[in-house]
# Entry
Amino acid sequence: MTLARSLPDTATEWWLYLGVLALYLLTRWFLAWHQARKEGVEHPVRAAFDDEEPGENAGPAAAMGAFRSYRQLLGFLAGGILIVLVATLTEGGLQLALMCALIPVVVTLLAYVDFRRARTHRRAHAHS
# Structure
């Protein structure tokens, strides 16, 4: 028995990781769409997809997807570690319960923090 594993062993574990990624992307898109609707954009769906494009004022760090604050970086690290721990150290019903109850909350909060930081950065550059 070893505790170190390099990749998921079963298709279920792969689906768990893909589901986490899909939830994060959908949450980010939903937040951008909601913000575009709130601002009265004519095509909020298009604006939500364009939201992820790095703009001219974004600079090289934002174009590479860099974290804009330590809070954002630490949140992603802690969230990622929590997801990996739940997926690798639990099995059966406990894993299912944690993946359905705890992980969606963590992923949604991470997407919100990421969206909020990007929105703040865009507003700061729009006014300058």
Q: What stands out?
A: The longest helix spans residues 11-38. The chain has a mean pLDDT of 77. The two ends are 58 Å apart (CA to CA). The chain is about 75% helix and 0% strand.
